[in-house]
């Protein structure tokens, strides 16, 4: 029987999922990306070479694996093709026999990106979402409004033209009469996207059928999520969220299989907390330990290059992530970054409106009103990047992991002490 795993981020993204997926891919035959777009980036380090992928599943770096992009993804054809070219330039095989896109995947077109940036531009101060401007939200809006362009539409250029015309009818009213910008024309959009969409054709496939076939063959399937649980459009820190469901249960809907196809969930947890863009971050610290994490952890967004806001580990939010994803194992990343700190603080509860909370408040904006309640743990001074076994970790580092396990009720199956593949302890 196959063993099928879902890998999700348990925080606000940027937890190091790419490395964990790359590690678990060794035992997988098929890797499926099931949601999100190129507003997320996975960084994989192999030897001295770093690869950042935004759309193509991380498993593509393993030559004997099949990679699928599911219907829950919104795909920018230009970004996809540029990733193809970059991988091919580095000697990676990305032919249609091992990289396939669902016919039902929705496409991001130039007017989606334009709308995304115009909307963010007119927001002010705290109203800014911190969007990457990649057109993700507007593309999902068109999907729900039933005017979206699907990957299968590129097989018929007349149909593609007519669907773009329908989408622009409304968007041009917004551009002209709300944003005061010039309208787009159908031909301008077509001429921009056709060089990219024509290249998609050879990669189109029935991804749902591919997954069923793999399961019937007894192959192992790895479902790869983007962003993190706290950015889920339903369960995250709304409205400072992404535009899709990032939780593990969306792996089924976003790839075209039933829930019974999933055997295990691995939740990736950074050893501290980071966030890119706007929105609440209760444990954020801007200097001292926060600056230490930012510098030592190289905390810059893989997609935007923006500085990540750093802070202590937030167990209150992580309890929500465990509740939503029901992971059987944790993968704790960047433990090495905390080395050199004498004291490590962990948020175990919130104070809110005179009471103690072990889970985030449910009302909108509630997370901006809480005061973190911290527990102090001993730090360690040793450089642990060269450690390869659990027993060789400093006592304080082991106790830190065990504190997290006890608090969340989930064991850490993987502990990362550096960016490279070999810098991972497996328990």
Could you give the topology of this structure?
Blueprint lengths: L4 E5 L7 H8 L5 E4 L8 E5 L2 E5 L12 E4 L4 E2 L1 H13 L9 E4 L3 E2 L2 H13 L13 H9 L12 H21 L8 H15 L3 E2 L1 H10 L4 E4 L25 H4 L10 E7 L2 E3 L13 H8 L12 E3 L1 E2 H11 L3 E5 L9 E10 L2 E3 L13 E8 L16 H14 L3 E5 L7 E3 L1
Parallel strand pairs: 1-10, 1-11, 2-5, 2-10, 5-7, 6-8, 7-9, 11-15, 14-16, 15-19
Antiparallel strand pairs: 3-4, 12-13, 16-17, 16-18, 19-20
Helix pairs in contact: 2-6, 3-4, 5-6
Please tell me about this protein's structure.
The chain has helices at residues 17-24, 77-89, 110-122, 136-144, 157-177, 186-200, 207-216, 250-253, 289-296, 315-325, 395-408, and strands at 5-9, 30-33, 42-46, 49-53, 66-69, 74-75, 99-102, 106-107, 204-205, 221-224, 264-270, 273-275, 309-311, 313-314, 329-333, 343-352, 355-357, 371-378, 412-416, 424-426. It is an alpha/beta fold and 427 residues long. The chain has 3 domains: 5-103 and 203-265, 3-Layer(aba) Sandwich (Adenylosuccinate Synthetase, Chain A, domain 1), CATH 3.40.440.10; 106-200, Orthogonal Bundle (Adenylosuccinate Synthetase, subunit A, domain 2), CATH 1.10.300.10; 269-426, Adenylosuccinate Synthetase, Chain A, domain 3, CATH 3.90.170.10. It has a 10-stranded mixed β-sheet with strand order 9-7-5-2-10-1-11-15-19-20, sandwiched between helices. Strands 14, 16, 17 and 18 form a 4-stranded mixed β-sheet that branches. It has a two-stranded antiparallel ribbon with strand order 3-4. A hairpin with a 7-residue loop joins strand 19 (412-416) and strand 20 (424-426). Helix 3 (110-122) crosses helix 4 and helix 5 (157-177) packs across helix 6.
């Amino acid at each position: 029987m196959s063993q099928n795993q879902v890998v999700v981020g348990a925080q606000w993204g940027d937890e190091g999922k790419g490395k964990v997926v790359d590690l678990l891919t060794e035992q997988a035959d098929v890797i499926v990306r099931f949601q999100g777009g190129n507003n997320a980036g996975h960084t994989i380090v192999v030897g001295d070479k770093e690869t950042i992928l935004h759309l193509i599943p991380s498993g593509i770096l393993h030559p004997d694996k099949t990679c699928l992009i599911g219907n829950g993804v919104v795909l920018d054809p230009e970004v996809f093709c540029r990733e193809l070219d970059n991988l091919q330039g580095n000697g990676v095989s990305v032919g249609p026999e091992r990289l396939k896109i669902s016919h039902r995947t929705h496409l991001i077109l130039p007017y989606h990106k334009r709308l995304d940036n115009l909307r963010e531009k007119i927001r002010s101060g705290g109203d800014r979402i911190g969007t990457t401007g990649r057109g993700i939200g507007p593309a999902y809006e068109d999907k729900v409004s039933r005017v979206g362009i699907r990957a299968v539409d590129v097989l018929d250029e007349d149909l593609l033209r007519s669907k773009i015309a329908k989408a622009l009818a409304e968007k041009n009213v917004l551009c002209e009469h709300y944003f005061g910008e010039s309208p787009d024309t159908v031909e301008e959009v077509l001429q921009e996207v056709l060089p990219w969409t024509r290249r998609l054709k050879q990669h189109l496939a029935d991804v749902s059928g591919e997954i069923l076939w793999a399961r019937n063959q007894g192959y192992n399937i790895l479902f790869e999520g983007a962003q993190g649980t706290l950015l889920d459009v339903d369960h995250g820190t709304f409205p400072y969220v992404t535009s899709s469901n990032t939780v593990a249960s969306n792996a089924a809907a976003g790839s075209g299989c039933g829930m019974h196809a999933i055997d295990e969930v691995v939740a990736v947890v950074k050893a501290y907390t980071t966030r890119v863009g706007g929105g609440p971050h209760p444990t954020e610290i801007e200097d001292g330990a926060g600056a230490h994490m930012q510098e030592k952890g190289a905390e810059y967004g893989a997609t935007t290059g923006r500085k990540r806001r750093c802070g202590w580990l937030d167990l209150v939010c992580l309890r929500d992530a465990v509740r939503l994803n029901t992971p059987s194992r944790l993968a704790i990343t960047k433990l090495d970054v905390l080395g050199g700190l004498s004291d490590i603080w962990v948020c175990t509860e919130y104070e809110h409106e005179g009471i103690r909370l072990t889970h985030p408040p449910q009302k909108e904006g509630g997370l901006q009103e809480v005061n973190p309640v911290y527990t102090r743990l001993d730090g360690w001074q040793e450089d642990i990047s060269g450690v390869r076994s659990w027993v060789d970790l400093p006592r304080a580092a082991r106790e830190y992991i065990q504190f997290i396990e006890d608090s969340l009720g989930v064991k850490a199956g993987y502990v990362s002490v550096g960016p490279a593949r070999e810098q991972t302890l497996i328990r």
